[in-house]
Amino acid sequence: MTAPAGSGAASTVAFAARSDVGRVRTRNEDVVDVDARRGWALLADGMGGHHGGDVAARLAVDTLADRLASGYRPGWRADAIVALLAEAVQAANDEIRRAAARDAALASMGTTLVAAVWAGAQVVCAHVGDSRLYRQHAGRFARLTRDHSVVQDQLDAGLIDDEQARHSPFRGMLTRGIGVDVVVTPEIARHDARPGDRFLLCSDGLTDMLRDDEIAALLAAPGSPDAIAASLVDAANRGGGRDNISVVVALVAI
Ligand code: CA
After folding, report:
1. Which of 30, 143, 183, 233 has its C-alpha lying 20 to 30 A from 220's C-alpha?
2. Phi, psi of 243, deg, nearest 5
3. pLDDT the model gives residue 2
4. 245 CA distance to ligand 1 middle (Å)
5. Which pLDDT belongs to residue 134?
6. pLDDT of residue 231 exceeding 50
7. Is the predicted pLDDT of residue 238 greater than 50, yes or no?
8. Tens digits of residue pLDDT in 31-59
9. What separation, in Å, do the N-terminal and C-terminal C-alpha atoms of the chain show?
10. Number of helical (H) and strand (E) elements in the chain, helices listed first
11. Separation of CA 205 and ligand 1 centre (Å)
12. Distance 81 CA to ligand 1 centre (A)
């Protein structure tokens, strides 16, 4: 899958997406979606209820995809995308809450979301929860999102270190989710997307099983986006596969 990176840019983005149930869970409550032609990737990790998690994740991804498709203009600019993503995330929140109000079995559902939209030499990212966006740029690997989680807050406060975070009983407890409250506050940021950059969207089923340096090595490996996505999922499964594992790999052409 390839997409133009935006008007005026010669570069293209090649995508691959994978979502795997893992080795322990019986249901996959993650949802991924890529629009390779127009250049965006969406990933949601649902939570709560009996069948609620997958419903919430699907509603979030479908709502975002609809809003982005309606708002899409060839050559659109990052500031327009920021506004569109803010409105779309709130719309997803509203959709999930309406569905939850109609069905008691779905009452406690919610979801994370990470949405990345490439335009020209930038990528605009909106996120809620602990699904992440990473970038490999000029040999440097960095996390571009900050988890909305109890463990992240404890790390920021200096109460625990990285190793304690990996084994924390609070792992997976979010401080923000889509569908949880009447108003949701996504974090929306713009980042450079240069020729040769590699991006990764992922759920915590990947990051709970692999350290950042392990993820960086797999993302930097030669091969197609599909092969890289498969190697990330395989490694998380070898590490235990305790949760659903979802990844979107996006390679900006050189
Ligand atoms: Ca998860």
Report:
1. 30
2. -140, 170
3. 58
4. 7
5. 98
6. yes
7. yes
8. 999 999 999 999 999 998 667 999 999 99
9. 16
10. 7, 12
11. 5
12. 27
C-alpha 204 to ligand 1 mean position (Å): 5
pLDDT greater at residue 51 or residue 179? 179
What's the gap in Å between 118 CA and the centre of ligand 1?
Answer: 25
Separation of CA 29 and ligand 1 centre (Å) = 8
CA of 244 to the centre of ligand 1 (A): 6
Which residue bears the tokens 């996504």? 186
Please give the model's pTM, rounded to 2 decimal places. 0.95
Report residue 146 as tokens: 């900050």
CB 105 within 8 A of CB 49: yes
Integer Cα distance of 41 and 148 in angstroms: 20
∠ CA 62-65-69, rounded to 5°: 140
Amino acid identity of 17? A
User: How confident is the model over 118-139, as a mean pLDDT?
Assistant: 96
- Which segments of the chain are extended strands (E)? 2-4, 12-20, 30-35, 40-47, 110-111, 113-119, 122-128, 132-137, 140-143, 187-192, 198-202, 245-252
Closest CA to 117 of 138, 96, 88: 88
Q: What is the spatial distance between Cα 125 and Cα 132, in angstroms, rounded to a whole number?
A: 10
Mean pLDDT of the chain: 94
**Alpha-carbon dihedral 195, 81, 126, 187, rounded to 10 degrees:** 120
Residues ≥6 apart with Cβ < 8 Å to 148: 127, 128, 129, 130, 174, 175, 176, 177, 187
